[in-house]
Design a protein that fits this description.
Structural class: mainly beta
Helix content: 10-25%
Order of helices and strands: HEEEEEEHH
Largest sheet: 6 strands, mixed
Shape: elongated
Number of strands: 6
Radius of gyration: 35 Å
Oligomer: single chain
Strand content: 35-45%
């Protein structure tokens, strides 16, 4: 029983360390090109009509299964600053005059005063700067009716015990693709760009599930 429990724990540990991070990019990550309908040449020559590309054909991606390069150059900067000041002061004065012929003569001549002051001062600052540069090759997974291309791709880089995942998807207008079959990420519509990692280093930065449980239920 003890050995079986240790085996299960070991399997869970290995699975947790080798699990692929979830993604929000368009699926699938790649697509196979559709077979061409042209008939193959039966002459036995080097030229094959079903798999050839003309000598002066534009090399830009246009069909499902074609690949293209995307130069990632994302720089975002945002800042906000707010100040709030509010104050209120209230003063009340009251006195009991001396009136003859009324009961409660001991309270006559007493003056009352009350002062109330409320002050609120708030200040907040927030700033964020992010830079993401690199290149990735994506695959056309769908050609939309208007000619735009839905592209998606993933790059995996394993270094030591960790694996880095770079993913990108979005809508590309063929007009913005240059002669080198490359486009900037700034011209990709509905872009979804991810940089995630898995392995020992990333697992060490995540709080354990039991610690998260106690953190959510403890009142202090």
């Amino acid at each position: 029983m003890k050995n079986a429990l240790l085996f299960v724990l070991a399997c869970l540990t290995v699975t947790a360390c080798t699990s692929v991070p979830p993604t929000n990019v368009h699926q699938p990550m790649t697509a196979r090109p559709a077979p061409r309908t042209e008939a193959l040449a039966a002459s036995g020559s080097i030229y094959q009509a079903g798999a050839s590309r003309t000598l002066f054909e534009d090399r830009r991606a246009r069909y499902v299964g074609d690949t293209m390069h995307i130069a990632i150059a994302e720089t975002t900067s945002a800042s906000t600053k707010s100040n709030t000041n509010a104050s209120r002061a209230t003063s009340v004065n009251a006195s009991v005059p001396i009136i003859s012929g009324l009961p409660g003569k001991s309270f006559q001549g007493i003056s009352l005063s009350a002062t109330d002051t409320n002050t609120l001062a708030g200040k907040g600052d927030a700033a964020a700067n992010n830079v993401f540069t690199g290149t990735i090759t994506v695959t056309v997974i769908e050609v939309l009716p208007n000619g735009n291309l839905l592209v998606s791709g993933e790059k995996q880089v394993s270094i030591g015990a960790g694996t880095e995942y770079i993913r990108l998807s979005g809508i590309v207008n063929p007009y913005f693709i240059n002669a080198a079959n490359t486009i900037s990420s700034g011209n990709v519509a509905d872009a979804r760009i991810e940089y995630r990692e898995s392995g020992v280093i990333s697992e060490a930065q995540v709080m354990g599930w039991l610690a998260r449980f106690f953190l959510s239920v403890l009142p202090f």
